[in-house]
Design a protein that fits this description.
six-stranded mixed beta sheet, alpha+beta, about 30% strand
Length: about 260
């Protein structure tokens, strides 16, 4: 009886029960599922040096957004296509860089092309290129960012952004060979991909390394941070030749994944 009463009292104390923390795998899923995704602006998005807050329930300070728009102009107008070019996960928020942020009106994807059979299509097809620059949006979680899927985050952003018809995989995967299309949709890299296709599937790597082995130039794109799973995507020339997963401990040392009996 005393134990039940104690638990009941603890539950009534604000902050006594901490929100479930994100795992490394949760963070990887969110990053891969949201970075490089397209959406359509449902409201005017102002340019802003400071991240524009959106609450978990979809509300935002219209006066603050309006002031930013008057001062810096729009990053996107209603109906414009935007792209999440970078995402950061903080304790109580997800921070999204839109169209390269306010630092530049030029974006890495402006020059990316995908195609097959000798023909190519710019990844920025349909992109709003007239906007003078991007902006930054922060999705706020008062009780801390909880474990969730990228699809849930898109629903939380639905009051301002429509992702339904503008994801990268929906717009461009149909132009790719079937096996590459399946890998992009699954958010993974496979041998035979080129750099543009890996960017579509996984987003930007945490870091890159280069080496020459037996006269062959190799480049590794490395995804993930210790502790947790690290993915190495190895390019020989312009194509992926190997994809390897390893698990890194707190000290940064890596080991092969354990085989399941």
């Amino acid at each position: 009886m005393k134990l039940r009463l104690t638990l009941a009292l603890i539950a009534l104390i604000p902050g006594a029960v901490q929100a479930e923390k994100l795992t490394v795998e949760d963070k990887i899923e969110l990053t891969r599922g949201l970075t490089a995704e397209y959406a359509t602006a449902k409201i005017q998005l102002p340019r802003s040096k400071k991240a524009l807050d959106v609450q978990e329930n979809g509300t935002y300070d219209k006066a603050t957004w309006s002031d930013a728009g008057r001062e810096n102009g729009p990053a996107a107008r209603v109906g414009d296509s935007i792209q999440i070019t970078k995402m950061e996960i903080e304790k109580d928020r997800l921070v999204f860089e839109i169209n390269g942020g306010m630092k530049s009106g030029k974006h890495w994807y402006d020059h990316v092309q995908v195609g097959m059979g000798g023909s190519t299509t710019p990844v920025s097809r349909g992109q709003n290129t007239s906007a003078p620059g991007g902006t930054t949006i922060a999705l706020i979680f008062p009780d801390g960012v909880r474990p969730m899927k990228a699809s849930e985050v898109k629903k939380l952003l639905a009051p301002i952004l429509d992702f339904e018809k503008h994801s990268v995989t929906e717009q461009y995967a149909d132009t790719l060979p079937p096996e590459i299309k399946a890998a992009v949709t699954a958010k993974k890299a496979i041998p035979g991909m080129d750099r543009d296709q890996v960017l579509l599937a996984l987003g930007r790597p945490e870091r890159k390394t280069r080496e020459t082995k037996d006269g062959i130039d190799l480049e590794d794109w490395i995804y993930g941070k210790p502790p947790g799973k690290i993915t190495f995507v190895t390019f020989e020339g312009s194509k992926v030749t190997k994809v390897k997963d390893a698990y890194a401990g707190l000290g940064g040392t890596t080991a092969e994944p354990q085989q399941v009996p």
